[in-house]
Specification:
- The protein is an alpha+beta fold and 79 residues long.
- It has two domains: 1-40, no CATH class; 42-79.
- The protein is 53% helix and 13% strand.
- The protein has three helices and two strands; from the N terminus they run E-H-E-H-H.
- It has helices at 16-29, 47-63, 68-78, and strands at 4-8, 35-39.
- Strands 1-2 form a two-stranded parallel sheet.
- Helix 1 links the parallel strand 1 and strand 2 (35-39).
- The protein is extended.
Length: 79
C-alpha cells in the first residue's frame, strides 16, 4: 500500500528545527512509492528569484482566466 502525505499552508509556521524534525518523520514513514506534497508558500532565496516565482505564479493564474476579484483576494492572502 502506498502512503500519501499532504500538507497545505502550515509548515511555514514551524521553526527551522521543527521543520527538520517533521521532514525527517515524513521521510521515515513514507514507504517506497509513497508521496509527500507540500502545498505551502515559499520565499525565494534571492529577491530576483522571488520576483521570478511571483511572476510565474501570476502568469499561471491568469492563464486559467481567474477573475480580477479572485486574483486580488488571492494576492491579499499571500501578503
Amino acid at each position: 500500500m502506498r502512503l500519501l502525505i499532504i500538507s497545505a499552508l502550515s509548515i511555514h509556521h514551524l521553526s527551522d528545527i521543527d521543520k527538520e524534525l517533521l521532514y525527517q518523520r515524513i521521510y521515515d514513514v513514507l514507504n517506497p512509492g509513497g508521496i509527500f506534497i507540500n502545498a505551502d508558500q515559499l520565499l525565494g532565496k534571492t529577491p530576483d528569484l522571488e520576483q521570478l516565482y511571483r511572476q510565474h505564479w501570476l502568469d499561471s493564474v491568469r492563464a486559467k482566466n481567474i477573475s480580477e476579484e479572485d486574483l486580488k483576494a488571492a494576492q491579499k492572502r499571500m501578503e
